[in-house]
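Note to self: user wants both folds in one dump. Writing first protein now.
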Amino acid sequence: MGTLLHFRNLYEQAFEDCKPQVAVILLKIYSVFAAFMLFMAVYALMDRALNGFEF
């Protein structure tokens, strides 16, 4: 749990003093999108591994 809080603090500090608010919003949207795509890649790999890599 401490690691997640540390990552949350790093995430919040990264956008703390950014001036163009539009850039901050776009970067936050992009980071959520990238996390979702990473989750989907891991899910697809695990699904293929558990089902015998049938294509």
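First done. Writing the second protein, which came from a different request thread.
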Amino acid sequence: MKKLVQKYFVIAKVLQIILFVTFVNTVVIGQNLGCNFKPGTITLNLTGQSQGSNIVTYIVLVDGGNIIKYKSALNATTIDNVVVGSYKAVAVTWDNTQANAPVLEIGLNLNNVDHCWKSIAVDMSICDCNTTTNSITVPVSTGLNPQYVLTNGRGVIQAIQPSTTFSGLTNDVYNVYVACGIGTAPNLLVGSNIKLVTTSDLCEPIPLPYVVCVAECAPVICLPMTVLKLVK
């Protein structure tokens, strides 16, 4: 009987660790992160998942009906060929030595996948290119002394300025918020995450998304070229 009790507590401890599987970019305060990635390969971060040769983890993307649209490779944090759309990302974990292994396949409803542990679902938006230049100009805000806040798709603040034009941008996903009449607000700093800024500090908490897709081409390759036949 004592051995059974000890075994129960060992199993309970493992389950507790697995239940804390979550994404690093889970929203803390609840700011809308706008667009997060371009179409193609997306990379996510996991934290807190159990480790061990018997523990398996997949990341899935589900649509609004909780249908699995994409599934990562075993214990991988990247998903390939993701198209434009809104999804929820969920980490699914189980012990592959258990008696009833879950069936986790594209097209299934995640609600019907059991015998596993699921992380908190994280909202995610995949957006297509909407500008081909390396600068963007956002609409003027009517708020008091507006400061325009530029973040990347993961919510990290890239710039804070009174000007509505951001220049020198590289190919990436950006979101622009507006903070008004605040002086200096805690966590409203370049390098901080917009998730840590309270909504009351933002007069435009719903961001404007911009996906910069500037043509990348080496000058030597892109210059007009003429092929000549050598005459001996």
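Dump finished. Worth passing along: The helical segments are 2-18, 219-222.
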